[in-house]
User: Fold these one by one.
Assistant:
Number 1:
Amino acid sequence: MHPAGPEGALMVIARRLARADASVCLTGAGVSAESGIPTFRDAAKGLWSRFDPEQLASADGFRNNPDLVWRWYRDRVKAVQDAQPNPGHVALARLARSLDGFTTITQNVDDLHERAGSADVVHLHGRLTAYRCLECGTPVQLDLAQRLAAEPSVCAACAGLIRPGVVWFGELLDGGLWQRACAACQQAQVMLVVGTSGLVWPAAELPLLARRAGAHVVEVNPEDTELTGWADTCVRGRSGEVLPVLADQVERMVS
Ligand code: APR
C-alpha cells in the first residue's frame, strides 16, 4: 500500500486503467453520501437511533412491524428521489464510456449510478424500488403514491405485504449477480474501491479476490478502512473530488 499524493497517484492509476483490458469498480454509501444520502449507519441516528438497524433491515423486523420498516425505506426512497447524482457518480459513468471492459459493482440500493449514466450496474444488495411480495415473491411496480404511502401495499396475488427489493440481514445475495461480480474482479487488471468501509461481507471479499488474481487495487476514501491493508494505492479524498480528476486524465489518454 503506497499512500500517494492525489495528482501523482491519479496519473499512474489513469495510465493503468487506459492500458487495462478489464477493470472494475466497487462502490459503497460514501459515493452517494455526496448526494446527501446518509449512509445506512448515519441514517440510523436521529429519529431512527432508538431502533436497531438489523430490526429495520430484516424480514423478521418487517413482519413484526411492517409500517415502521416500510417508513424507514420510504424515507430513503424520498431522499433518493430528491437527490441528484454527484460528480463522483458522473465520473464513473464517464470511465465506463472511455474504457472497454469497465464494470461497476455497487452495494448501494439507490439509482444514482444509473441516473448519472452508468449502465448494467451490478447491485449486490438489491435496489430500493425493485419491490416484490414478501410471501410469494411476485415482482410489483408501485406508483409514486404507493411508494410514499405510510404503510406497505398488499400483493394482488396472495395478499402478502409488498417489501423493498433490498437484501436484508440474514438474506443471501442474488447468486447470479455474485458470480458476475466475482468474475469481473478476477479478470480485472485494475480495481477501484470507492466509498465503502469494507465491513459487510461478502462484498468486502471482492477486493481480496481481485488482488489475489493480480489486479492493482486502488482505494478512494477519506479514511482508512477494513480494506486499506489490501489496497496497492490509497487515495485519501472524497469520491466527488478524486474520480472526476481520474476520469479527465483517462479521457485525455484514450482520446
Ligand atoms: N467519498 C468517498 N468515501 C466516503 C465519502 C466520500 N465523499 N464519505 C464517506 N465515505 C466513506 C466512509 O469513510 C466509509 O468508509 O464511505 C464509507 C461508508 O461506509 P458504510 O457507511 O459502512 O457504507 P458501506 O460500506 O456501503 O456499507 C456496506 O452495509 O449498511 C449496509 O447494506 C448496507 O450496502 C450497505 C453495506
Number 2:
Amino acid sequence: MTLSGRHIILGVSGGIAAYKSPDLVRRLREAGAEVRVVLTRGAQAFVTPLTFQAVSHQAVHTDLLDADAETGMGHLELARWADEILIAPATADVMARLAHGLADDLLTTLCLATEAPITLCPAMNHIMWQAAATRDNAEILERRGIRMLGPADGPLAEGESGPGRLMEPRDIVTALQGESSHSAIAGRHVLITAGPTHEPIDPVRFIANRSSGRMGFALAAAAAQAGARVSLVAGPVKLTTPPGVERVDVKTADQMHEAVMARAAEADIFIAAAAVADYRVEQIADQKLKKSDNSLTLNLKPNPDILKDVAALPSGPLTVGFAAETESVREHAQAKLVDKRLDMIAANQVGDGMGFDVDGNTLDVIWADGEQRLGPAPKRDVATALIQLIGERLNEAG
Ligand code: C5P
C-alpha cells in the first residue's frame, strides 16, 4: 500500500488505450491512492464518465467552464488537492498542448496550475510517436521535469507494431510505488553540480567543454521526485530547473567551488556531475585580445578539485563522482575512486557521439565492494536508477 493516502489526478486523453484506464484507477485505489479522474473531450469518445465514476467512487471532472463543477471542487482547488498528476493515455495532442503551455481544457489547465509532479504515459501510433514534432515536445516536457513512463514497444491497435503502446496499468502502478519508496533519499539534502564551467580568456572569450548539463539536471529531478531536498549548482546551461529544486547559477570552476563548499558540510549526499574545467587562464585580459600574425600562448593554472575537497571534509556527505573518459573507462574510474577517496563513481564513455550533449547514457557504477551497469537508457531513466542505487548505499552506510 505504498500509495496510501496519495491524492492522484488521473487525466485520460482521447486514444484507444483509454479502455485500459478504468483498470488503472482500480489498481491505484488498491495500492491505497485516492483517485480523481479528469477526462478530455477526446477521451469521452472512447470511455464514459459513468465508468470512471463507478471505479473511482468520485465525481468525474470533464469541463473547465462548468459553473456546477466549480462550486463543487473548482479547478484551482483540484490542482492544489493533487499530490501527483498522471496522464494515461497521453496522446500526441495532449503532449503538444502541454509542451506549449496551452490551457484550453480542464486537464491542461490543471497541469499549469499545479505544483505537483506530472507523469505522462504516452500511447499513440508508432509513426506519430516518432514524428519530429512529438520528439521535440517530449524533450521539452522532460526538460521541465515531467516524467514519461513508456510507451512500450509491441503490437498496436491498428494492426501495426512499434513503440506506442500504453505501459501496462500494473507496471504504471509499480513505477509510481517505486518512486515513493526511495525512502533512503526522502528528506535528505542532496547537493549536485551540473553542466560545464566557462573559464574566461578576455571579456568576450572563454574556455568551455561539450557538457550539456542534462545528466546533472536529470539527477536533480530524480532526487526531488524521490522526496529529497535538492540544491543544484549549475554551470552555464540552457535547461529549465526541475520542480522543487533550489538552483544556484555559476560560470567558473572557482565560483562552483565556492557555492558547493558553502553547502557541502550540511549535505547528506554530494553528486559531482559537472564537467569542471581542470584549468583556468592565469591572466584574464581586461580588454578583448587583438589578433596578430604571431602565435598566442595562454598560461593555464589548475582549478580547485571540488569533488576531492568535498570528499576530504571530516564528516562530509556521501560523495559520488563521475568519470567521463574516452578510453580505459573502468580503469580510470577505479583509480579516481581511490585517489579522490569517493564513496561511489559513475563511469561513462564520452566522445564519438556518446555521453556529452546526447539524450542516452550508459553508466558503470563502482563502489568499494560492488559495481553495477545502468543503461543504455534515456538519461532520465539512468538518473532514477542511480538515485536508487545511491539510496541503497546510504542505507548500508547507516
Ligand atoms: O579528475 P576528473 O576531472 O576526471 O574527475 C571527474 C569528477 O570530478 C567529476 O565528478 C567532476 O564533477 C569532478 N571534478 C570536480 N572539480 C574539478 C574537476 C572534476 O568536482 N575541478
